[in-house]
Amino acid sequence: MSEDLLSEYKAYYSVRAEKYAGNKNYSFSYEAEKALSNAMQSCGKLEEFRTAIGDLNERCAVALVKDEAVMEREHFRKHKEDVRIKASLEILDKADQFNEVMNLITMVNEAYNRNMLEITADEAHRQLYHDWDLVDRIDIYTQAVVPDKYKKDMLATAEHYRKSLRQNAEGLTKEILKYVPEWRMDPEKVKEFRNRRLCPFADHHIEEQLRKYKEIINA
Amino acid sequence: MPIDAFILNAMLDPFRNMVEDCKKNQVSGPDFDKMCATLARLEALGQEQSDINTFNGMVMQENLYGLFSDYYGRALSAQAKQKQTEAGEGAYDDAYLLKQCVDALKQAIVRLRESYEAALEEAKGKKVHQQMEAGMDYFGRTGDQKIIAAGGGIEAMKKRTGKDMDQEQKERPNVYDSTAEVEALQNPEPLIGPIQDLIDLGEQPGMTLPRFLREQIERGLDKAAEGTSVARGAWEYHYEIAEVLKVSPHEIEKHRKKLEVFQTMAAAAPFGVPMAREVQWAMDDVDREFEPSIIRWNKMRDYMESLLDDLHFWSLSYCSFAPYLMPWSLSEDPVAATVFTQNTQPGIFREREKLWKKYFGLEFMDIFKHEIFKWEVVHSKFQYSQQFTVFMIEKLYEQCRPMNHLSRDMISERENFFGFRGRPDYETNPDILIPGQRWQEFYNRKFGAGRYESKYKAAEKGNWQAAPWNLESFSYGK
């Protein structure tokens, strides 16, 4: 019975390793599972596995975390997501230090939590893209040709939009500071690839709008 | 002042329930103590802070949700290890371990079904009055007191809303019932099937743990139980919705491609179930591929609508009944408000026209040749009739310039387009309800014949007398 069980365990660990065979996205997992399987194959009795296993099971968990972090890193590298990539970089930097699964999970969760705050702080710099139309409306109401008696009202409307822009920037800063102390808006970041890709306008339009926006919100 | 209980309870109840579950299951030890301490910290912050964003910010900076989850996992793991130690050598008994695996799978099915039943119960809408009153009480505590006073006070508002809800329910019996939708969209049986297959495998006579673990890999049952196999249904559903809504060809193509990518990955994967992470990044690739064209399309459509709405709005302000229409009727002096529009809208329109040219290199007349305009017309999403559109192009566009006004004849012609107080309306696209009908047909296909009508009010057809669009006869599109 014990011999049957031993050969069944050997078969199981062999199949477990082969699950990742040929998949370049899971190369660490394949190597780790292979090492675990080899440890099992080396046993003459089932009880020997308690010693032979060592920390090989934990190494499989680390390998899986690394494989998934590599996929994430490569994905964000391809898309020039310079902030979102940080979680996977941190995980890959630290993963090999862990030989206890719960601590590994804790490290991964902490990395993603930190990164969520970094993403929040980063994407808040996109505010110009949300307020683009407000900047345009200031120009529309300032430049629109109207009879003289209505000019004052038009300029008042333009001023209202100017005030809204400033309030939006101030309000955003106040809220982001609750998550990320010492955050300060840097509108220039809208030009960075990960933000720029979301704007349908030409580069020179962005430069022009950015100049106007920074002047209005005193950035 | 603490975060209002209405908001705080919704956020913290799941964590409170997890602590209670642990107590019920006699989980204990240092990790459980830390879990309780983390919840205590959440509760304390909820009492100390009055602003929800400040609360959330502190929770995120201290990683309280992450810590809670971490301690929870450790506490359960510690309990499992404790039970193993108590079982002694018995814990390594193959049959015992196999039974533990199978029991865990059975528990998973129980939990899936319990969640589904809870969702169905919630979907019956039996608590809608209670929920409405709780929401109103929250508004009463935190909302603008002037608005509340203008509404007669919260109790009066609750009473009125309650009466309206009862009336709605008489007219549309399923207005607050979403059980059919939950049954169609959240039925766990497709997920349960593969899990049951695993249980059946585990309970085969003579089954051992290693053989159970090996066969589930060899037969793909482990992958099936992850749920990725039911994801195909989700991609199909989103593609169907995109085809019904017809927001843009890019949206439709995006969803079509996502489904195609999933099918390709499934075909190449062992047992037809691709790895979840690989699917996640492949789908993100598709989203990013289409995002720029979707954003550009939507922005251009907004500009087009703005320009045409300017012409519509400006010319309407001249009509004799304009002071009775919003937004002018909301003004202290509605007539003066219409005069203001007459004098300022042309200047605004011409500045918007300059932006249209600046950003997209297009003239006003290019709107009507553009694929976006044609898409909107073909799919009955364009709000104006062909007749009114031609009037805007041929008569209003040229007249809408600073310091210029519509002639008496043109005002008269304009007035005849607008269906004031039941008169025939020639400015609205008579097919404008077709998108809603498309949605209604889709809805009834998905959730049962007549379901839409039993929940939602039918859009009212106005006295729309314009002829339907015929792009072939529209010379400005060529």
Oligomer kind: heterodimer
Q: Summarize the biggest pleated sheet of chain B.
A: none
Q: What amount of the residues of chain B lies in strands?
A: under 5%
**Count of runs of 4 or more consecutive helical residues of chain A:** 11
Low-confidence stretches of chain B: none
**Overall outline of chain B:** globular
Please state the structural category of chain B.
mainly alpha
Number of strands of chain B: 0
Radius of gyration of chain B: 31 Å
How many beta-strand runs of chain A? Answer: 0
Q: Which regions of chain A have little confidence, pLDDT < 50, spanning 5+ residues?
A: none
**Helix and strand composition category of chain A:** mainly alpha
Q: Helical percent range of chain B? A: 55-70%
What is the helix fraction of residues of chain A, given as a range?
over 70%
Throw out a few tags for this protein.
heterodimer; A: 219 residues; B: 478 residues; mainly alpha; 21 helices
Short description:
The complex is a heterodimer of chains A (219) and B (478). With 219 residues, chain A is mainly α. Chain A is built from eleven helices and no strands.
Q: Could you characterize the architecture of this molecule?
A:
The complex is a heterodimer of chains A (219) and B (478). Chain A is mainly α and 219 residues long. Chain A is built from 11 helices and no strands. The longest helix of chain A has 32 residues, at 148-179. Chain A has helices at residues 2-18, 27-41, 49-52, 56-78, 85-94, 101-123, 127-130, 132-143, 148-179, 193-196, 203-217. Chain A is 73% helix and 0% strand. The radius of gyration of chain A is 28 Å and the shape is rod-shaped. The mean pLDDT of chain A is 95. By secondary structure, chain B is mostly helical. Chain B is 70% helix and 0% strand. Chain B is built from 21 helices and no strands. Chain B has helices spanning 5-24, 30-48, 52-61, 64-87, 94-123, 128-142, 145-150, 154-171, 179-186, 189-202, 209-218, 221-224, 228-245, 249-268, 276-316, 334-360, 371-378, 386-399, 408-415, 434-447, 451-455. In chain B, helix 2 (30-48) packs antiparallel against helix 4. The longest helix of chain B is centred in the middle third of the chain and has 41 residues, at 276-316. The model of chain B has no long low-confidence stretch (mean pLDDT 94). The interface between A and B is large, with 50 and 50 residues.
